[in-house]
Every structure is written in C-alpha cells, then in structure tokens.
Automatic annotation (TrEMBL):
Residues 78-133 form a coiled coil. The chain crosses the membrane at residues 23-45. It comes from the Bacteria. Keywords: Coiled coil, Membrane, Transmembrane, Transmembrane helix. This is Magnesium transporter MgtE intracellular domain-containing protein. SUPFAM superfamilies: MgtE N-terminal domain-like (SSF158791). It comes from Metalysinibacillus saudimassiliensis.
C-alpha cells in the first residue's frame, strides 16, 4: 500500500486559474478570431470598415442620409420658392399691364381735356367778340335817333331785335317805342317781359 500511495500523486490543492487567464481564453481569443473573420469577409465584399462615414449601419442614420434628406428638403423649398417667385412675377406683369393701360387712358383723357380747353377758350373768345360787337351795336343804336332806329329794329329778326333792345337804356328804349306802331311796340314789350 505504501507503494500505492507513492504512485498516486498526492492530491495537492489545485491552483485556481487566474482571472486574466480565463478572460484571455474565453473572451479575448474568441473575440479576436471573430474580428479577424469579419475583416476577411468585409475585405472580400469591398467594404471599408475603417471609413465609417461610407458605411450603412442599420438603424443608424448616416451623415449621407441626413445630407440627402436636407438636399431633398432644400430642393422642395427651392421649387416652392420658384413657384412663389413665378406667381409674384405674374402679379407684377399684370399690375404693369394695368398701369400701362391706366397711363394710356390718362394720356387720352389729357389730350381730350386739352382739346376741350382749347374749344372752351375758342368759345370764350367768340363770346367776348360777340359781346364786344353787340356792345358796339347797342352803342350805335344809342347814338342813333329814335326815328331812324325804330324802323331798323323792326326789320331785324325777333331774337336780334330783342338782344339790342335789352341792351339799350330805358329812356332810349322809350323813345324808340314811341316811333314804332303800337302793335310792334306791344310785340317787343311782350318779348322783353318774357326774357
């Protein structure tokens, strides 16, 4: 038995394997192997793992997507603003057309106003000339004797005779009526009364 005891190794307390040894064997070695396999696979797929900007990582929006989204949003805004600009340009064109029409209308009205003013001045001059001529005629009849004026007035049209008689002084008018026949004097008196 003694031999048997010698041949069996003594049961020595087993040393516990260290924490670092377990960490190394169960975590670091498998992790290194997995990383190496992933690097080989990514190399075969032509994917650059070290440039994360170009990678499409699921569930994570990349800078490219953000940039694309901003570009789409900017394009939409540009289109919207171009529409607004086109609308404003159409409104401006419409207002300019209205303004041009109004200017043409104003020019026509100004030309018409000038024409009317010219005609009015012409009529005023003619009226002044007529008044001047009428005043001269009335003054002439004032200077004439009643005996000569009465037959001349009777031979005029009623309207012209009435104008002359209305412009005469009352004492001259009375002398002219004395030289007319009673029917003629009554006729002109009635016409003067209606005036």
């Amino acid at each position: 038995m003694a031999k048997e005891q010698q041949s069996t190794p003594e049961l020595e307390p087993k040393k516990k394997s260290g924490f670092f040894k377990k960490l190394f064997l169960f975590f670091i070695v498998p992790l290194t192997f997995i990383i190496a396999v992933l690097l080989v696979v990514t190399q075969l797929l032509n994917v650059n793992v070290f440039n994360l900007k170009d990678m499409d990582i699921p569930f994570v929006t990349s800078q490219k997507e953000k940039t694309k989204q901003q570009a789409v949003n900017n394009d939409e805004k540009v289109l919207e603003l171009q529409g607004v600009i086109a609308e404003k340009e159409a409104q401006i064109a419409e207002i300019q057309a209205q303004l041009k029409t109004a200017e043409e209308s104003n020019e026509k009205l100004l030309a018409e106003q000038e024409k009317i003013n010219f005609e009015l001045e012409k009529v005023k001059r003619e009226k002044d000339d007529t008044k001047s001529e009428h005043s001269e005629i009335v003054a002439t009849y004032e200077k004439m004797s009643a005996k000569a004026a009465a037959p001349a007035i009777v031979k005029l049209s009623d309207a012209e005779a009435l104008r002359i008689l209305a412009g005469l002084k009352t004492d001259t008018l009375a002398k002219i009526f004395e030289k007319m026949t009673p029917e003629q004097a009554a006729k002109y008196t009635e016409l003067l009364a209606k005036q």
